[in-house]
Predict the structure of Protein nucleotidyltransferase YdiU.
Amino acid sequence: MKLNIKHTFTESLPADKNLENSRRQVKNAVFSYVSPKKTKNPKVLHVSKEMASELGISSAETKTNFFKNIVTGNEIYPETKPFAMCYAGHQFGNWAGQLGDGRAINLFEVEHKNKNWKVQLKGAGETPYSRTADGLAVLRSSIREYLCSEAMFHLGVPTTRALSLSLSGDQVLRDVLYDGNPAFEKGAIVARTAPSFLRFGNFEIFSARNDIKNLKILTDYTIKHHFSHLGNPSKETYINFFKEVSERTLQMIIHWQRVGFVHGVMNTDNMSILGLTIDFGPYGWLEGFDFGWTPNTTDRQNKRYRYGNQPNIGLWNLYQLANALHPLIEDAKPLEEILNQYKIDFEKNSLQMMKDKLGLYVDDKNDLKLIQDLEDNLQLTETDMTIFFRNLGNLNEKSSLLKIVEDAFYNLEAISGEIKSRWNLWFQKYAERLQKETLSNSEREEKMNGVNPKYVLRNYMAQLAIDKADEGDYSLIDELFQLLKNPYKEQLKNKKWFAKRPEWARNKVGCSMLSCSS
Ligand code: AMP
Ligand code: MG
């Protein structure tokens, strides 16, 4: 395995001078050198061959001991020096100070096919940023991150990716329900990849410490390596940088809304500066369409990170980034204009996204109302988002309108009386509206199928893979991995995954409720 190693990050940015792996406040540095922890009995459970090939690693190479040792932190790739990054963040709306890579360790940077990738281990032991925790990850959360990040990629949602999922062979103590009943679980390590793992919080920490020198070094580095089209550093470039981060963040969230993904912990330390979905913790997928739904039990009270609030939180987080970058720009006005534009763009892009989901391509001033009425209807009774939109594409003159989405209703008997009339009315309006379209039914269906996925990683599906893996059977991880590589395609042999959440999963921990304990 011969990788084309680069060192742009570590050579361009200030390193922590203290080489001790002790928990502390790290000042004047973007990262600290730290070695992963050796593990007892590492075992690779799954490899994303697609991702491996992006890095220049062949399928045969992923089966070697060397690969296993690298992706579990048991061996360091020649001439590389692993490190953890220093960042801060606003958690649940409050300033939390220094956080940092508490259990993520960057291994190296690889350049391949003209792309630069950072490879990072999650769960490979403590770092100076581990605070009170152990630097480890358990199998269940690692399966969730591994499967979901690759699934998001194949759905066309900007995301960090995953290279491999491994068992460490060590046991990890966790209190899943935070109820004073900790238990040992299998430890695991995900090797994940991205062009950059920088977060809003990497910029916030320097600003909060009034370390403008390093804020500028980091911002200039980010622009040079990731936004080079914006040109040389200047106030204008910094403004354009913020504008682009704002636009990318918005695009990412519109994608989340389109596929029904709820991140669950949109703290500013979990917001990628590249607009990638990052840190798959207590995330979830909408089953019943519900703007008020959050999978995160830690957020049960305020539901700050509920589905319908994700766009607003994106904006709130961008305000924090604007504050962090302000010392470089020293003018609030252009930043405020960009933030205002986010609101305008959100309305526009969100409408466009919903029109695409409904197969509406010509202009019609009543579409906003039609969409709002649909969103109201979808919440009248529990209605499966994925099935509803996917089946909607099947509509043709002969089909009974309500019939084609029947499978989406969790309780068909509830579709009666007032609720039934409201649905019938909506479908009547929708059918009338479709008359204005120029595409044939089959052309429309094909286009709609490209934005309305057939298969997503339903919460209970990940949980089934986890339950089997706990018993030592890892086959479902591969089955779901393969399924989710083609989320928009009809897959006859996988029909069973195009179904509503089974009743047993309604209130099961891990399916509808997840804590941050991972
Ligand atoms: P998260 O909510 O997962 O984004 O984590 C917030 C912060 O806690 C980050 O700085 C993480 O690195 C850190 N963290 C989470 N879990 C652990 C762990 N098991 N050990 C060390 N640090 C952790
Ligand atoms: Mg995080």
